[in-house]
Amino acid sequence: MIQPRLQKLDAAIREAKVDLVLLTSLASLGYFAGYTAGIETGPSPFSPVLGALLWIAGEPPQIFLADMESSEGLFPGFEVTPFESYTVEKPLGAAKDLAAKLLARLEKLPACRAGIEAEELPAAIFEALGSRCPQIEFQDIKPALAKIRMIKDEQEISILREALELCDLGQTLIKKLAQLGMTEIELFADMRKGMESSAGGRLPLLADLVSGPRTAEIGGPPTSRRLENGDLIISDLVPRHRGYWGDTWNTCVVGEPTSEQRKLFEGIAAALAEGIERVRPGVRASDLDRNLRKRVLELGGGYPHHSGHGLGVTWHEEPRIVPYNPLPLQPGMVIALEPGIYFKGRFGLRLEHVILVTEKGSEILSKFRHTL
Asked: Within the chain, what is the greatest distance between any pair of CA atoms?
């Protein structure tokens, strides 16, 4: 029996009027096939792409994986074919080997149309396919794939809840562990240790952690700067858990806050709460963005970044909560809202919660209570 996510892909294939799909993004491999790649080492020096999902109409879906990658965790129903990536007896040639294995399937096809992710398919592979398969017309279907991933199923929502529990723990630890005189990187290391101990293993983690005047710079990695009395600390924690990303921001203070800091913190917290109250099916992303920005302007400042975004197998996806996006919210979407306010050379604040759009309104999935 075809799994539900492939049913969605099949519907998108039919709507796009393509006969096959060749998907190479980590997002698609994770969402449709259950493949999760290591990310902390950056791009692989052995292969420009770690896998490819090929699904030809009327045939079983097939996964091509670099031979250094594990097929553990893949959803059932996929035929797995390794391609050569790491070699010592000859020069590296992963793209060439993957292209050859794809060509073995595609060259035999009659005239047809293929859906690809144009931004995620290496030129070396695309050029080989194009020159050897002139009967195939290639079409970018990335927007259709993003649309599929916007609506989360129950399994995804359950995993996102778990990822956000790690975020909640991390934010709690930062507020608990921050001490006068310790460095940002020391605080980050102690916090990460607690998160990984809770997760039971290594935890891919994107993070901003800035303090004092650095908070006016919106974000950045932790440094050797030492915490001083009265410093604000902004922390953005984005852990990946079981292939899905959590994401929360908090702002806290070393010592006692000033009256100005407290007033602005309460204002941003109120703006976030009002934004969450507006979340319901049918509300346009651009309207949600506009109302959040308007509320922050009333505090005497603003922010240059997005007001929010979707979460899932990537840490920033549709629906983007930005001025240009008229997309209406739908039940099953999971979005992060993150208004902030920044004063150049002085300080900044930013708060974030993650919300599930429900049939009647919304549910806050991140449970950490923002306190200064």
From this structure: 72
